[in-house]
Write a structure and sequence with these properties.
79% of the residues lie in helices and 0% in strands. It is mainly α.
């Protein structure tokens, strides 16, 4: 009995050393410590998982999957193992299996936004833009201040030519990260599409507002201000009117 306790403590010591090395981004040293822990106690599932994460950091994708496979044999409800194995599979362009792993992680922990984000990115690569948008929306419901996800969703919406909502996401990102560079969302196409929409709905304030933001991104400040003035004229909502007025004042500086 004492020998078993001692063995368990020795394995845990190596595991903790490995975790410390991982925190310092010394991946080779971390892998060595986790390996020693597993040599002492081959049933220590977290050591397989943490070694897999370290392997992922240095690009050993095959070994990553092997480690997480073993972690899941020992603990089939290990959500983080599904997440990281899915990440490794995505990096190998194994999109179908990556989506399956992210979905399993979400079944185990539906309150975790990270699997939604990663599954959304993979679905976007697969061309499933509606599915990607749905995943990014779910992720933002769980964490409304996760600014990179607004960019991810804006890109997906832009590819679907949903410029009004793409611009709205980009605006939210800019509010969370003022001064950051804007992504290339084919803004010339956005202006063209919004102009066509305005011919059908010439009093739609949201369309003028979106075209103003797109033109501002393209550097067409004069026509952007003109669009904002029209948006202000047609906007019935007081809070949005205040927002438009603030932008007009800022853009005149």
């Amino acid at each position: 009995m004492q020998a078993l306790v001692r063995t368990s403590m020795e394995a845990r010591t190596h595991f903790e050393r490995g975790f410390f090395e991982s925190e310092q981004c010394r991946w080779a040293e971390a892998i060595a410590q986790y390996t020693q822990a597993l040599q002492i106690d081959p049933h220590l599932a977290p050591a397989y998982s943490e070694r897999g994460i370290a392997q992922l950091e240095i690009g050993n994708l095959t070994r990553v999957i092997t480690d997480f496979d073993q972690a899941l044999v020992l603990n089939p409800r290990y959500a983080i193992a599904f997440l990281y194995r899915g990440n490794a599979r995505a990096r190998q362009s194994d999109w179908t299996e990556a989506v399956a792993d992210f979905t399993k992680a979400l079944k185990l922990d539906p309150s975790w936004n990270q699997p939604y984000i990663l599954r959304g990115l993979v679905r976007g690569h697969q061309g499933d833009l509606a599915g990607a948008e749905e995943d990014f929306t779910k992720a933002l419901e769980l964490n409304a201040r996760d600014s990179p996800t607004y960019l991810d969703r804006a890109l997906v919406r832009g590819k679907q030519r949903d410029w009004v909502r793409a611009v709205a996401d980009l605006t939210t990102f800019a509010e969370l990260h003022p001064g950051n560079a804007k992504p290339n969302l084919e803004w010339e196409s956005a202006v063209t599409d919004l102009t066509k929409a305005l011919k059908l709905h010439p009093r739609d304030a949201s369309l003028y507002y979106s075209r103003a933001l797109a033109r501002k991104i393209l550097g067409d400040r004069e026509r952007a201000r003109t669009d904002l003035e029209k948006a202000l004229a047609y906007e019935p909502d007081l809070r949005q009117r205040v927002r438009i007025q603030r932008l007009l004042w800022e853009w005149r500086k």
